Amino acid sequence: DKARMAAAQYQNALHLFPKSVSGWSPQILLCSAVTDFGINEIWQTISDYQTITHQNQYFSQNRLEQAKYWMYETINATLTEHFYHHPDIENQLAIFEQKVLDNQLSPFVAAKKLLRKYFDKT
Helix, strand or coil for residue 33? Predict the structure, then answer.
């Protein structure tokens, strides 16, 4: 059956990847929501993953890394939004962009000038 052949190929391909930091070895499972085949095995595998990653502290460490990531993403998104919607920048951005496209300014000089304008006004 094609599903079993694909599962075997995926299982063989997993050996090409380095061991996961979580300590978990991915599982290749077959299931069907239509016939209810393999659903219990899927839930058991999820439970096993949770158990392992809680025991080895990966789950909580990963949560902390995710929290840190989202803190920085929020800062970056807020600064970007504020920068591009600042009236002085909105008025100058197209001008500087055109100067870059016309090779009158390097992208780095244009960016530095715009950032200087922004920081001088905030």
Answer: coil
